[in-house]
Amino acid sequence: MPQSRPRIIPEATVARLAVYLRVLAGLADGGRSHVSSGELASAAGVNPAGLRKDLSYLGPCGVRGVGYSVSGLRDRLTDALGGERSRPCVLIGIGRLGSALADYAGFASRGFEFVGLLDTDPATVGHRVGGLQVRPVQELEAVVAETHATIGVITTPAEVAQSVCDRLVSVGVRSILNFAPVALTVPAGVDVRKVDLSVELQVLAFLDQQRDGTPPLLAPLRPAQGVAR
Amino acid sequence: MPQSRPRIIPEATVARLAVYLRVLAGLADGGRSHVSSGELASAAGVNPAGLRKDLSYLGPCGVRGVGYSVSGLRDRLTDALGGERSRPCVLIGIGRLGSALADYAGFASRGFEFVGLLDTDPATVGHRVGGLQVRPVQELEAVVAETHATIGVITTPAEVAQSVCDRLVSVGVRSILNFAPVALTVPAGVDVRKVDLSVELQVLAFLDQQRDGTPPLLAPLRPAQGVAR
DNA sequence: GCGACTTTGTTCAGGCGTTCACAAGCGGTT
DNA sequence: AACCGCTTGTGAACGCCTGAACAAAGTCGC
């Protein structure tokens, strides 16, 4: 029964596959030829059984009693995640964060290349950032058309993020990474991932407060304490 | 029955509460006094029923038939997420990303203040970034002690992230936001949140490929195709 | 003052993701 | 050639979160 891969891969698994791939790259550099699921899982910070389940979505790719071939697994993961072909990206909003992303080495090494940087501020337009010249945002459609960019990264202020998003979608960009603190509305068939930095900090603050504050709540020493009202 | 709040709030809910809080701030600036769950949910990009469930963890805070008081709900959310008190943070690794975070306005407006910037590079140490002078990473323990920082943000290269993390934990920091592409190991009682930018892009790339590639996979036209082997 | 409409708060079912535990399979050894 | 230990792959249970339907409750209009 040669059913190739009828299963669908959960998005949470996909995210972890990317992590495994990075760990494998490190192991390959270290000259390792084989890894066990336990070692790989510990390096990636996940449960070994979960890791095996994640990998099983790609079909059997290990050898029982031995483990996984580092190079073999790396190739298979690379393939599953979209191959090695370079993915052209456009970045809109060249502020501090945008500039940092524009020449973040971690992207280029994984096949993501910025082919267009756009901003509204005349003081920013024309500057070189990460080997690329910033162009006025009016040229967004032209840049996407001439570079065939497939991914758009939005690091604009929140107020203009939706309009930038709409323009990206209108010229065929179907993958958007949004750093602006707003919920973008997109038609079906377009994927948006949101990274919200202050939310991350706020969750940490909550957990911190909970650590200090919930012991009294979970195990109230004095029920009749001054919890007025 | 004056049971205060026996329930525990799921982490996913906490993250959304932070989003609601930001939306409410915008509504308050716009002069709105009341909102319905539907409107708030649409602005936050979530389901109305889910929003009401999220808010119900804080106890009843709306008025049936009317909606939620913007200022009242904002105060209650602010309180639930840790109050308005300023949270001192230290940032280790003042590269491009670190610099961008150091003077990201979105943090300060939510009560997160960087009180220490640290780096190893002598060329970076001493520079002013976001109104603060970068200090050598050797002084990490001293900086945490004198500023009483409770949150550590790591934007170093992956290789040194774990050692920086260990040092933060050793001086009492129990909340860590990690941008380095490694899984940090911490003792129980310490919370780590990880932001992995290239994973986000890789997930987008996968979804993009899946959109184009899976139709043949999900609905195989020819089961007996050349799936040799 | 009463009724009807609106909106919240809650309860219920469904799906998804994670975890544990076991059987299958391969290499090395005797 | 057969056995033993090790590791993968998978099946099932558990728990969490999400999405929808219903009841309570308050307000506005008459």
Written overview of the protein:
- The structure is a homodimer of 229-residue chains.
- Chain A has 229 residues and is an alpha/beta fold.
- Chain A has two domains: 11-80, Arc Repressor Mutant, subunit A; 87-196, Rossmann fold (3-Layer(aba) Sandwich), CATH 3.40.50.
- Helix content of chain A is 44%, strand content 16%.
- Chain A has helices at residues 11-29, 37-44, 48-56, 70-80, 96-102, 105-108, 140-147, 158-170, 197-218, and strands at residues 34-35, 68-69, 87-92, 112-119, 128-129, 132-136, 151-154, 175-178, 191-194.
- In chain A, helix 8 links the parallel strand 7 (151-154) and strand 8.
- In chain A, helix 2 (37-44) packs across helix 3.
- The longest helix of chain A has 22 residues, at 197-218.
- Chain A is globular.
Write out key terms for the chains shown:
two-stranded antiparallel sheet, homodimer, Rossmann fold, 9 strands, DNA-binding, 229 residues, 7-stranded mixed beta sheet, alpha/beta, disordered N terminus, Arc Repressor Mutant, subunit A, 9 helices
CATH class of the largest domain in chain A: Alpha Beta
As residue ranges, the low-confidence spans of chain A are: 1-5, 215-229
Count every helix of chain A, treating DSSP H or I runs of 4 or more residues as helices. 9
The class by helix and strand makeup of chain A works out as alpha/beta
Biggest sheet of chain A: strands, sense, closure?
7 strands, mixed
Strands in their spatial order, largest beta sheet of chain A:
5-6-4-3-7-8-9
What proportion of the residues of chain A form beta strands (DSSP E)? 15-25%
Count of discrete domains of chain A: 2
Radius of gyration of chain A: 23 Å
Overall pLDDT score of chain A:
89
Largest interface: A-B, 69 and 72 residues
Could you say what the CATH topology of the largest domain in chain A is called? Rossmann fold
